[in-house]
Fold:
Amino acid sequence: MPIFYDTHAHLDYPDYAKDFADVLARAQAAGIAKIISIGTSLDSSERAIRLAEKYPAIYAAVGWHPSDAMKAPADLRPALREFAKHPKVVAIGEIGLDYHRLPGTSGAYGGASVPASRLVRSLAPPTQSSDDTRYKQKQADIFQQQLEVAAETGLNCVIHQRDAFDDTLAQIKPFAGKVRGVFHCFGENADRMRRVLDIGSLVSFTGIVTFKNGQNVRDTVAATPLDQLMLETDCPYLAPVPYRGQRCEPAYVKEISGVVAQVKGCSPEELSAATCQTAKRFFRKLS
Ligand SMILES: [Zn+2]
Structure:
């Protein structure tokens, strides 16, 4: 059975509280040998580390998600530096910029990686565009801090960007050569994919590749060199077909890999070898 990794999962979310052991068992049965649990705040990062300590197949990424930027402490660096020393912390992330829901435009912010329960608490009355500026500045500020920690500690980054591609690329670019990013849940066109690869970063693809309306993403997959991409679920979000709309879990990398292999015209074994090798090179502590 070909082995795959889930390079982006939110295993610390309450969605898995009731059946965590079953979720892990299904992943193992599906050949998903390693799972990286991604932090979205300091608490979430710490929970990811605890999971990595408890389960051999789980690794952790530590970072503060841009959608929750306003709640971040003034200086994230000391805590992240400490986390980064852990042998199973394989990356800084997820970090980046998210302009999808700015406070002044929709009255709510919180990206795909914010649980519904927290989204409700983020609801705020309509505000003015000066709030948007403040919000973007705070996102850029914590993104910068976290890129600095990545450069200092020799870890690569898991990048979240939504409606902020140019600004995200511009901010990571000065770190090229020191820090690589994986632009996770990649949904951009082939031209933008090449701009990411040009600065030494990578892309990873989720269950969106299986969606009926995901042809644009499949076109990007087709254009991406086989050794420059990784697979992920971003669970509990974005369950692939035939589970679309349900809670997602790491086992479903299998369905994602099936479609990606088809699009790339390669065997599951070739895709397994390529993506696992790419992941081990990128997340160097992923032994
Ligand atoms: Zn995520």
Observations:
- Residues 8, 10, 38, 94, 113, 234 surround zinc ion (CB under 6 Å).
- The radius of gyration is 18 Å.
- Strands lie at 4-9, 32-38, 58-62, 89-98, 156-162, 181-183, 202-205, 229-231.
- The longest helix spans residues 129-153.
